[in-house]
Design goal:
The protein is 18% helix and 28% strand. It contains two helices and nine strands, in the order αβββββαββββ. Strands 3, 4, 5, 6, 7, 8 and 9 form a seven-stranded mixed sheet that branches.
């Protein structure tokens, strides 16, 4: 087996983060407490832990900034999380399948309460990209999430204005692990 495996589960997450940054780079969205617009920030697995600039926080300290506005921590929205959800390796020498859930958070304080529209735009762009070209990073391929769906998406049920949330479920296949057969028994 090749000691330097080029494809890994973390490779999938990093490549998908990079691709989503590119897909959404021209979208300009509101940030809490600011008049500046920004493209969604893309993170792997979790949002960064909030803390004041240039300050080390201790274990268990939430350290919410003093300048926090009425809507929460202002520097994060809009954001997209690329969360590794579930993986399957069926057998040696076979491709592995990895489920990924994209969680999307946007801020929109307009009184029309249409923040869900920004979520839908992001979801549609990502689905279109992988429906047209399922290849990612040379060896990773978008595949259906189950027998009936290529993608699954959802919007939040509750009213959390001015913060809006949604999710997109996707699945990918990539090279698995090659069985080593030093003695010719395989």
């Amino acid at each position: 087996m090749d000691n330097e495996r080029k494809m890994s589960i973390l490779t999938l997450q990093r490549e998908l983060c990079k691709e989503i940054r590119e897909i959404t780079s021209d979208l300009q969205m509101k940030q809490p407490g600011s008049t500046e617009l920004t493209a969604p920030r893309v993170f792997g697995q979790n949002l960064p832990i909030p803390r004041k600039k240039d300050e080390d926080i201790g274990y268990g300290d939430t350290d919410i900034p003093d300048e926090e506005d009425q809507y929460g921590i202002g520097f994060l929205f809009p954001w997209i999380l690329v969360k590794l959800d579930l993986g399957n390796v069926y057998a040696s020498n076979e491709r592995q399948r990895i489920s990924v859930i994209l969680v999307i958070g946007v801020f929109d304080d307009d009184l029309e309460a249409n923040g869900h529209e920004r979520i839908v735009i992001i979801v549609e762009r990502i689905m279109e990209r992988f429906a047209k070209d399922p290849l990612l990073g040379g060896q990773i391929v978008a595949v259906p999430v189950d027998d009936d769906h290529m993608f699954r998406w959802s919007l939040q049920d509750e009213d959390t204005h001015p913060q809006y949330f949604g999710a997109l479920e996707m699945a990918f296949e990539m090279p698995g692990f090659e069985r080593e057969d030093y003695y010719g028994f395989a």
